[in-house]
Structure formats: C-alpha cells, structure tokens
Write a structure and sequence with these properties.
Length: 174
C-alpha cells in the first residue's frame, strides 16, 4: 500500500524559494516513505499499542540525510513554552524552516495534529509543518481513517479567514 501526501498551503506562495525547497524536501521524503522496505518496516511497527517513536526511528536516517535535526532544542526560546521540542527541525533559510512531527495512535483523539500546527505557528523559526500520520488507525476496537480527517481538520487553517503564520502543511499518510 503506497503512502499519500497532501499539501495544504496559502495562496500566492508557490513561487517563493523557501516553499519550492520545502516541496522538494517533501517529495524526497515521500519517495522514501514509498520504498518497499520502508513500507514493510512501517507496517510491521504500525500496530495497536505501538509508540510513534518506533515510526520515528524508521525515518530518522532519511530525516538526518535531508538535513533535519532530531528534537532540536532552543527554537522556542523566549516563549512561555520554551521547553517544547519538535520531533525534527530543518532550517531552510534565515527566515523559514520546517518542523516535522510523527504521530501514530492518538493523532485525532488527542488532537495531536492541532498541537503540531500550533507548535509550528508559535515557532519563530518555522513556517512549514511536515506531519506524518497513519492513513488508518488500528485498534482493538476496530479502525478509523486518520489521514483524511487530519487533512480535513487542518484545511480549515488554509482558508483566508483562518490563516495562521504557517505557510504550508505537508500531510504524509503512511
């Protein structure tokens, strides 16, 4: 089963160099997520009661190759929530960067998608969010479609009346 990528973005940013670079990185990451070996490794770890850290560990090498730093400290310095750390962070240029968050079981139930958007919104060094979520959440009580719900919920922030300072969210569904 292939992974999905949905890009939610503000209008009129598509020719900006930082956006073009973010898209290029997203495509490389998505291609990696669609490699047979990665699909198999993620499928093996994407089971009830698994931890998102297990999925992160599968992606760590590629994230580092793309230039991300794991759990970058200090990017929320000066804020009341200065202790926050993203799963991964990549500086694009002097004014923009990417926060990458990997979610697994409670993406919707605990509003982790909204928390991740908020983290990107308040971060002075990031205006792009790479959000990696399961397409389907498996549980002992059945399954639920996570990826389309996340896309629907976050798309609200890309209508002009609801803009934040997050320029784009790249939702990857595994």
């Amino acid at each position: 089963m292939t992974n999905e990528l949905k890009i939610l973005s503000k209008p009129r940013i598509h020719n900006r160099s930082d956006y073009i670079k973010a898209v290029s990185i997203a495509i490389k990451l998505n291609n990696h997520l669609n490699e047979d070996e990665i699909i198999a490794r993620v499928s093996e770890k994407h089971i009830p009661h698994a931890n998102s850290r297990e999925i992160q560990d599968i992606l760590l090498l590629k994230a580092l190759q793309l230039g991300f730093l794991s759990e970058k400290r200090g990017i929320f310095k000066g804020l009341a929530t200065s202790q926050l750390r993203p799963d991964y962070f990549l500086k694009i240029d002097d004014t923009s960067g990417i926060i990458m968050e990997v979610e697994r079981g409670r993406t919707i139930a605990n509003n982790m998608d909204l928390l991740d958007l908020w983290k990107c919104h308040i971060c002075p060094y990031a205006n792009y969010l790479f959000l990696i979520v399961p397409k389907i959440r498996q549980s002992t009580n059945g399954s639920s479609d996570v990826f389309p719900k996340v896309v629907r919920r976050l798309s609200t922030f890309f209508t002009e009346s609801n803009f934040t300072n997050v320029d784009a969210v790249f939702v990857f569904g595994y």
